Amino acid sequence: MTPLQKSILNAVKRRPMTLRELQNNLQVDNSRLRTSVSAMVATGELSMRNGTYVPGFATYENTNAPAAIPCTLVKLAARFGFASRDDGEGDIFIPGRALHGAMPNDKINVKLFDHPRVEGSSEGEVVEVTVPNNRFAGTVCLSEDGRMAVEPDGCRDVKFLLAKQGSEGVHLGDKVGFLITHRGNRHSDHRAAVVEKFGSSDYASECAKAILYGRNVRQEFPPEVLEEAHAYDNAVIDPTEAAKRLDLRGIPIFTIDSAETKDIDDAISLQKLEDGYELGVHIADVSHYVRPGSALDEEAYERATSIYYADKVIPMLPTQLSNGICSLNEGEDRLAFSCLMRLDENGEIRSYKFVKSVICSRVKGVYKEINALLEPAEDADLTDLKTKYEAVLDQLPAMDELYRKRLVLRKARGGMDIESNEAKLVMDENGRCVDIVKRDRGTSECMIEEFMLLANQCAANAGRTNKVPFLYRVHEAPDAEKMEKLSATLLACGLNAKFKNPIPTQLELAALLDETRDQPIQIPVHTGILRSMQKARYAPQPLGHYGLVLADYAHFTSPIRRYPDLAIHRILSEMLLGASASQLQKDFNEFAQQASEKSSKQEVAAVRIERDVEDLYKAEYMHNHLGEVYTGTVAGITPRGVFVELENTVEGFVPAAQLCKGEPQVIDGVSMLDPLTGKSWMLGSSMKIQVAAADVALGRIDFEYMVE
After folding, report:
1. Degrees, nearest 5: CA angle 120-124-129
2. Is the pLDDT of residue 62 over 60?
3. Over the stretch 350-363, which tens digit does the pLDDT of each residue have?
């Protein structure tokens, strides 16, 4: 920095100054001053605000901020990035020149700017990369000067030159895993080397492999885990252990899942009584096999959840357990952890108990088949189905009856039924997506969900009332500011969304959900309400579940695929053996805290992977339908354009430039108006589109507006 530039900076630090004020203050030649000021703006040492010059983003000094804030870089684009503060106090915007080569998932220290370009925002500069992340997945491309390069996934327009060694046989458009081998002070100075080759980015399956690699997903089990798992090859239950348990093999217990399910966690039984019902929810006793301190347990803790995508699964436990001795397979004796509940004639819980049991599922029920039995189509021949379900057929009417009563109770308390528009991907023998259909939930799916909810509720109640360490599934009340924005959006959509209090009751939100169900506005309203909510998570404190309107809720019913369920089984098992609350607190307090945090973090990562991979397959499917015309629903509106969702759940983007001849006007976030033509588009309105482009590598679909 020249002496004049130092003088300019010192002057504007005292107070903002115009160019004329700087000239009068410093008594320098106007031309020389202009040259210096322009250079300082270009390098970020000065910024312009309201016609005056102030210190820019390259000026570190901020006496009100700590010397550096520990963060993690969470997003990177060509001209900016976002860092998430490790103390949980929000995100910091990082201008491109202030990134200094930092990469996503780098642990960094950030210095806040004294004068952010947007008043009141958090903006800063990376002053140190403390723990670099050098492992990425990406797509092979060309640099601006025509050399072989790679663009990291999720970092659009960021490119690194590839080292020649290790990149032999790599072609343009390939999906690869790579390491940053050299870091410079700018992203353009970084160099990379390919370490994994996945194949063409035209195929979703190859792009999915790259996502898993880039996000460090544990796909293979370590040798010590496999060694422990091999002990359960073709295993059967131990008769000595079975003799210690409540024997329920004489009761007609059965499972209901999708046809392709291989890891069966839960089974049910129901007996109708004179004054109500006895419902049994029988869960695989995974905790009997996965013991604390074992390699199996440590690996399950690290994974925390199974990841399901397309037609594949990355299991939390090896198949010897997940599909074998722990899976409640038809006709096979299994050790279970049963929740036996008594419900009154209205479906309210009167009492419950947890017992270690031994069961044998009579039949592997399938949702579609159970739905056909519960709601038979006209002239349907159900002879074969009735034969298959003969051992449990008489339970189905009582189950349906109890479910209907539970549904009345859920609606009365304001339980929210948000339509999520889940997609089912149909794959061919080569792993290509050949169809996408909207996943329908019939009576049996909803019925099983309600029965599992009851068992989960009882488990949480047992933890809370006995004052023992526990992992609760919590969903806190929404933020008042988000609710205010939601209310304004819904009012702009013409809905009666004036809430009595800053935080609406669940009944108020449930009424809005029901009002818009099966209406054109359903997609944006249901999605808007969902996005305005807090995220459900795991916590050692019983904070309740806002969405379900329950004081007690936990996850007990899926220990094969979720670690919190396994952890709860372990704690409840010790309770059944007579351990005191004080002993359980000593043994499990720290465990419950750590397992809650770890499982919440891994769940977020798994959901993101599942969604991102689904986007890849949707783009792959739509790539085979380029040029085809569909009618969809406007599901989102931004100044850049609108998002349109098709009947099959595929969502694509229509640029504003195709819709508006003038500068588009977005009104209340719910409509877009073209001031020149007077045309407008609103959330929930239909739009005729043509599939213009589908980029599999990015999981992005572009639509072209078709004038009707």
Report:
1. 150
2. no
3. 999 999 999 999 99
Parallel/antiparallel/unpaired status of strands 160-162 and 191-200: parallel
Which of 561, 558, 569, 559 is CA-nearest to residue 591? 569
Spatial distance between the Cα atoms of 313 and 560, rounded to a whole number of angstroms: 12
At position 359, the amino acid (one-letter code) is: I
Neighbour count for residue 15 (Cβ, 10 Å): 10
* pTM: predicted TM-score of the whole model, two decimal places: 0.86
Tokens 């739009």 belong to: 687
C-beta neighbour count of 360 within 10 angstroms: 22
C-alpha closest to that of 303 among 234, 212, 235: 212
Within 8 A by CB and 6+ apart from 5, the residues are 36, 39, 40, 45
Q: Which two tokens stand for residue 229?
A: 């798992």
Cα–Cα distance, 426 to 310 (Å, whole number): 8
Which pLDDT tens digit goes with each residue over 200-253?
Answer: 999 999 999 999 999 999 899 999 999 999 999 999 999 999 999 999 999 999
* Token couple for 596: 């809650």
Q: Which amino acid is at 596?
A: S
Q: How large is the average pLDDT for residues 503-525? A: 87
Tell how strand 246-247 and strand 349-360 pair up: parallel
Residue 335 token pair: 């050790």
Q: Report helix, strand or coil for 123.
A: strand
3 state SS for 276-296: EEEEEEEEECHHHCCCCCCHH
Kind of pairing between the strands at 276-284 and 307-309: unpaired
Give the distance between the most distant pair of CA atoms in the chain. 100
Residue 523 has pLDDT above 80, yes or no: yes
DSSP state of 476: P
In contact, 104 and 73? CB cutoff 8 Å? yes
What is the model's pLDDT at position 43? 64
**Contact by Cβ (8 Å): 182, 208:** no
Report in angstroms the alpha-carbon separations of 558 from 96, 265, 316, 498. 45, 5, 11, 39
Measured between alpha carbons, how far is 316 from 210 in angstroms, rounded to an integer?
20
Q: Which of 519, 560, 535, 544 is nearest to 684 (CA)?
A: 519
Burial of 72 (0-12, 13-18, 19+ CB in 10 A): middle
Distance between CA atoms of 565 and 285, rounded to whole angstroms?
10
To 10 degrees, what angle do helices 563-576 and 581-623 make? 160
- Using CA atoms, how far apart are residues 29 and 413, in angstroms rounded to an integer? 75
pLDDT digits (tens, 9 = 90+) for 605-623: 999 999 999 999 999 999 9
Which DSSP letter does residue 181 get?
A: E
Q: For residues 41 and 705, what is the distance between their CA atoms, to the nearest angstrom?
A: 41
